[in-house]
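Supplementary Methods S3. Input chains for the assembly prediction are listed below.
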Amino acid sequence: MLASVHHILPLTTITRERILPTAGTVLARLNQKVGPGDIIAEAKWAREHVLLDIASMLNLPINAADKLLKCKVGDLIAAGQEVAVGSGLFPRSVRTPREGRVVATGGGKVMLEVGETKFELRAGIPGTVMQLIPNRGAVIQTAGALIQGMWGNGRIDSGLLINLAEKPDSIITSARLDVSLRGSIILGGICKDAETLQAAAELPARGLILSSLFPSLLPLAREMRYPILVTDGFGTLPMNSVAYRLLSSSAKRDATLNAEVYDRYSGARPEIIIPLPVSQSSAVPVDLLMFEPGQQVRVRRPPATGAIGTLVSIRSGMTVLPSGLRASAADVKLESGVTIIVPLVNIEVVG
Amino acid sequence: MATSLVEGESLLALDVGASNTRAVLFDIVEGEYRFVAAGHSPSTAEAPIKDVSEGARNAISTLQNVTGRTLLDESRGLIAPAQADGSGVDALVVTLSAGPTLKAVVVGLLSDVSLESARRLTQTIYARVVDSIGLNDRRRADQQIDGLLRICPDVIVITGGTDGGASRSIQKMLEPVGLASYLMPQEKRPTVLYAGNQKMEAEVKALLASHTASLHFSPNVRPSLQTEDLEPAARELARIYVGIRKKQLHGVDLLDIWSNGHIFPTGYATGRMMRFLSKVYSTTKGILSVDLGASATVISAGFNGKSTLGVYPQFGLGESLSGLLQYTSLDDILRWSSLDISTGVLRDYLYQKSLYPSTIPATKEDQVIAQVVARQALALAVQTAARDFPRSLTTLKSGLLPIFEPIIAGGGALSGGAGPGHSLILLLNALQPVGVTTIILDQNNLLPLLGAAASRNNLLPVQVLDSGAFLSVGTVVSPVVSANYGAPILKARLTYEDGTESRVDVKFGNIEMLPLASGQAANLTLRPLSRSNVGFGPGHGGTIPVSGGALGVVFDGRGRPVQLPDDSVRRRELIKKWHWTLGEQ
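Predicted structure tokens for the full assembly:
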């Protein structure tokens, strides 16, 4: 059976495509070395539109109104500028209420886009630009440690990784967050309260890595302007031992926290990248494996949610589980030494 | 659609779901179509494979192993038609529910007329209505445009106006749609279905054709104010759904080629089958189908050759579970639990399960949580669907489900259960059927596949239905009555074909069973007490023929609606007792 693979790798080659949400200008150059905060592409778009019903405002038939327009598509119009003038002894005129660019005319109407904003796409990871994607972005490659998470709040930032989690099931509280942590990425643990998230924002921290988060805090976590990544799930789950060992041993290193929103269809996942100097290229992560004895696996559901173990054997046929359900299953020896029977759909390979 | 009259045509049906892909083989056995075997494999719509055809091939491979029949060639292509050496199949049909829920915008005139029809139409596919534009919309046109640009809908359904009726108002509604589509990048433009005033077709084309991903027309869903006819538009919307999926999901185009275009949204295929079954049963009662899947809960009711269909992604048991609390509370879900489970544990379950939709309960406690969550999702879906049930259906008391005969249940949460008792208690608790009804378990989830198969071969569904591929759980008698706990409410006598009898006195608050094996028939005499109503009127009884099932004849004496005790210890003991009665430990 095909296995899901969850990447927690001490050293690997990481290649990421970074693209704009809409067409724009690519600023990066091929083979350019970039830092995570470097802007590699930008796009401009308008958040709002203004539709001026000229025919109605001048009380004219559509065709007549179209003939009176004083602007065309692409024109930049200042606030208060005339866009159409009627005829007669005392002609009425139509002025635009806001500055904007004409995007459509016709049917007796003029539409402007207003409130133009610029979207800047940052590299996200330190590395080398391997490929340019015209009008959209670039492909960047680096080498280092990669730790995937389960949930992210959509933000991205980089900083020094500071470990506040003494053990995998540590609980992070606002009392632990002092000014010395300003600008760092904090390895926390279980987060149970809103004060902790607010305190990290006030520092401000560059990021927060949590093993688990209370579901009730999700709306607030989404609002935070710094990246928050959850490694194991929701509630009070400790950090899986593989991620904890790698992250805690990487303290004081520069890390990039890309708390991308998990998208099961595109494969986008929140992730932590810890760049490492390498003399030769390292292996590329394998995304697809078949279950095999000897693999390191992570259990995704009770009775051992989040636990790391070794796949001992895959059972033949269907196994009746304590729940009463029948499923393809495996014997998994947990780090505690206990061997449990787990349905294959409830485990993922770690590697 | 063309009907195949080719004798002995073997048919492979693929169901590409959010979690699993199934390959099901139907073939002629002893002169009649039979369900032969099924193969399963995890679906591969998601990363890293991102190609649904891979999961389909894997499921077909499993089917090959089960049947010993070669269906794929060396390059893993489908062998079609069937070869002289016995390999391959003659035809393929596909049902599809994998993929992210589509974002839909409905556009119409009056909120309780055309917009309501558009909403009903949209819920025949796996879509969520994210905005609606109508005459009562107070937003300015540019605000509507900005709304559409923010949402970037996959599909826009436009209704409104009776044929030959209002046109200026519709034109006003079309403008924001056309302008917003024009402003969107080419690859993000929506597909538009126009199902309104047919006299407007030329104007709609002129306004929208060049700005949308594709523009489709169907007959008016409201040809007159009093008439609603969703079926032609639903057929077109099903085609649109498949078209959008072709763009979104790799491999759908290949399955479309393999199946020669016989690919349908799973829920829509279920609706087709229900329409067909309602003709076959042709009783005054309706028939009901419920399907509890990962991508959606699908409720379809058939009556007199017509059907209603509701596809509810918000009540699916997969990635949308974290949103279930928008419609219910943790306490309401846990009221049906036989174990003492905290609200925190349940909340964590909902969010964790939405991260890993394909996982299954391995422990008893996890199974209990999964069951109460499934119950709540099904109950909410049925309550929502009931708004669209025809008023003509027989009801015993307002606020309760109409009498359905039979009720067909499928989907992972029901068919993958630990046994018929597990499925039946979930159904009884969620649906709370009334009167006398037969519960049929679609244990192989064949119903939508038969609906799809009917597009190629209309003999196949009939013969497969008669072949015993569905599991009859039993006949359920559910009196509508209010009484004190333990008060006698019904006396029942089951007279078997050999003349022997079994009797039971049903007391309020209890579930009782009388044995009647599958394939056996008997006469059931019911004598209601305390003015309980089993469908003959309050206090009236009668004798009816019943057929057997895995659990025989089940008497649900809990009254309707089921009132659970407020005391949590007593409530859990009672729930455990009900589960034990039906053989679920």
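Chain B has 16 helices and 22 strands. Residues 364-386 of chain B form the longest helix (23 residues).
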